[in-house]
Amino acid sequence: MLLLSTTSPRWMVLYAFMATAGSAIGCWILYLISRRAGARALNRFSEAKQKRVKDLIDRYDMLSVLVATLLPPPFPFKLFVITAGVFRFSLFRFMIAITAGRAFRFLLEGYFAVRYGAEAKVLLARYYPWIGLSVALGVVVFVIVRKLLKRGTSATVEQTLETGN
Length: 165
Hints:
Elements: H1 2-7, H2 12-37, H3 47-60, H4 62-70, H5 77-86, H6 91-116, H7 120-163
């Protein structure tokens, strides 16, 4: 991604699209295999990690998968893919989260390559953990604020209906 985008900046969006498609297809295949393999697919991971990821997916749904796509290695991204398959998380919602997260990540990498050229690799190696964590945190804060505003609006509507105003 970095090499291609540095060499041919005008093709960066195509490269990001192709990388996103390749990653999404790979995740889709792993999801389907995990669905068929069942719990055996999770045996490579500790029970504590399995439980934590299942709880995150159950509690935060698509958001947990989306955030997992943005976090840098050594974050266990594949564990989220396998867990989603084993516990039959909605394939449609799973693919939306994977595609959105990976598209953002590859477009960001492409932008850095176009903007900073050969230095992009060094910059991303040094700062991507912080960039990934910041973006993930931003997504979480956005969702929480949105839910709070929605809850506040619902409460206001209910009060208006109760008082008859």
